[in-house]
Design goal:
The protein has about 160 residues and is of the alpha+beta class. It has 5 helices and 5 strands; from the N terminus they run E-E-H-E-E-E-H-H-H-H. The chain has a 5-stranded mixed sheet, sandwiched between helices. It is globular.
């Protein structure tokens, strides 16, 4: 006897998606396997690394810690939704300009967390910037260029 499947609907990056998944299916697995959005990475699967960070109704969440059913009827933004008409978002361009990535594994989660910071519209001092961005792990860059890229966008110097 198979596990019960649930019909869910989300708006992902402005596009409505309807899927059927098992109740125990995580949001990250649903995004990748059922919606074909593989930009959200699966890292630790314990909510520690932040590679799976997406925005749920405008707030950052670890998609590996959520069941897909918890996102039913809600708005989700993934890294695939940042670029517009083939042009990088200001953050994507700043990451490129500042060489804020190396292997790229953490980059989708970093970009989504930074997008939340920028779109909040509240001032962010350097201490808060470091604290927030350090919640996502990067094993390659040492964070300095990531912080420079996000700071430039926060200060209106990119894009």
């Amino acid at each position: 006897m198979g596990a019960e499947r649930l019909a869910l609907a989300f708006n992902i990056n402005g596009v409505d998606h309807e899927v059927e998944v098992e109740a125990r299916r995580t949001l990250v697995d649903t995004l990748r396997d059922s919606c074909g959005l593989t930009g959200t990475h699966i890292g630790c699967e314990h909510g520690v690394c932040g590679a799976c960070t997406v925005l749920l109704d405008g707030l950052p969440v670890r998609a590996c810690l959520m069941f897909a059913v918890q996102a039913d009827g809600r708005r989700i933004r993934t890294v695939e939704g940042l670029a517009r008409n083939g042009a990088y978002s200001a953050l994507q361009q700043a990451f490129h300009d500042h060489h804020a990535l190396q292997c790229g594994f953490c980059t989708p989660g970093m970009l989504m967390l930074a997008t939340w910071l920028v779109e909040r519209g509240t001032p962010v001092d350097d201490d808060e910037l470091r604290e927030v961005m350090a919640s996502n792990l990067c094993r390659c860059t040492g964070y300095l260029n990531i912080l420079k890229a996000v700071r430039d966008v926060l200060d209106g110097e990119s894009g």
